[in-house]
Design brief:
Helix content is about 35%, strand content about 20%. The chain has about 350 residues and is of the alpha+beta class. It has an eight-stranded antiparallel β-sheet with strand order 3-2-9-6-7-8-5-10. A two-stranded antiparallel ribbon has the order 1-4.
């Protein structure tokens, strides 16, 4: 039987043959989407045996990081709703969570910085990076599942031409995220190889910004590919799908009441990482603005202090929203996008990490 033109993999007669009908009830689809975004799988299952229970794990620690910026146990962050993503208040029990680890692995993999003093050891920095890439990898897998569900349901009341345009756009997005999964899986596997050897933290380079007391006003963690440095110079061409992208890790977190903004990368991409750092620190007066803008331009997994956010003027909130919307735009990065950090981050000192253990 002939497959449908929309590339769903279903026979045409079971897919778009008679799909022009009214979408009367969104609730069942909404429930499907919630289920997709809550899919449970331990991302460390191929490295060591799991416990039975996959849990709602925090990609940013609740007790030592989110608690540093929360107000009445709430923070502001992105929250998904049907056909919408908004910046809103979220309880810290739910903020930054994903079903990406079993209970055993969530407790053991990140105990180096969650249950011990943060001394900026190789192991602690490695573990922060591993959690960041796992969260990003999990998110992209769920986005693909979500887009596939959209393919099957959302265009039921569209004209045939509208269906073609819609399906072409969705297929393009699915291919984009599949490429992202391939890129992130490469680095995830590179890190996971180190779990089989006794000293497994030496493939990463870290640049650490130590922050002043009571900063930062936001917490953020991610791993992503950056096409331009903060001066607008191209780092890599992300249109070349056949070339493995170069990724950076960012962890802006409070640990034991001290704030850090940590940028990490693989040694194999050292020139790439050094160029990013150079573009940030070359002008000391704009370091804080660049770190702030870098975070809100590129990192969805970011949460902010309610006290800080609610103190912003309406103009400042509009400027912040423009940064947050950048990931959904087609425009290339320009240094003109860098804005004031709005008193959200203050640097005490910064340096390349050197292992002293």
């Amino acid at each position: 039987m002939k497959e449908c033109w929309c590339l769903s993999g279903l026979p045409f007669i079971e897919c778009h043959f008679n799909k022009k009908m009214s979408l009367k009830d969104e609730k069942p689809i909404h429930n499907k989407f919630k289920k997709i975004l809550s899919k449970q799988e331990c991302l460390h299952r191929n490295i060591s045996p799991c416990s039975d229970q996959v849990i709602k794990a925090h990609s940013i620690s609740k007790k030592i990081s989110l608690s540093a910026i929360c107000q009445n146990n709430h923070v502001y962050g992105f929250k998904f709703d049907f056909n919408d993503i908004k910046f809103r208040k979220i309880g810290i029990n739910d903020a930054s969570t994903f079903f990406g680890f079993c209970k055993k692995h969530d407790e053991s993999l990140f105990s180096s910085f969650e249950k011990k003093d943060f001394l900026k050891t190789n192991k602690q920095l490695f573990d922060l990076c591993y959690r960041a890439i796992c969260q990003e990898h999990y998110t992209m897998l769920r986005v693909i599942d979500y887009l596939k569900e959209i393919k099957k349901n959302i265009d039921k009341d569209y004209s045939f031409i509208g269906q073609i345009e819609f399906q072409a756009e969705i297929n393009s997005q699915i291919n984009f995220y599949k490429l992202g999964v391939r890129y992130s899986n490469y680095y995830k596997q590179q890190l996971e190889k180190k779990y089989y050897v006794s000293k497994h933290e030496d493939d990463l380079v870290h640049y650490i910004f130590e922050l002043k007391e009571n900063y930062p006003k936001f917490q953020s963690s991610s791993c992503f590919n950056l096409e331009y440095d903060m001066d607008g110079n191209q780092l890599q061409n992300l249109d070349r799908a056949e070339v493995q992208s170069k990724n950076i890790f960012i962890n802006c977190v409070s640990l034991q009441s001290k704030g850090y903004f940590i940028i990490s990368w693989f040694k194999e991409n050292n020139d790439f990482g050094k160029q990013i750092i150079s573009s940030i620190v070359s002008s000391p007066s704009s370091i804080e603005d660049k770190l702030f803008s870098l975070t809100f331009l590129y990192i969805f997994n970011t949460f902010v202090s309610p006290e800080w956010f609610e103190s912003l003027t309406e103009i400042q909130k509009i400027e912040l929203k423009k940064l947050q919307d950048f990931w959904n735009e087609q425009n290339k990065f320009s240094p003109s996008m860098i804005i004031s950090n709005m008193n959200s981050i203050r640097i005490k000192r910064h340096y390349f990490y050197k292992d002293t253990t």
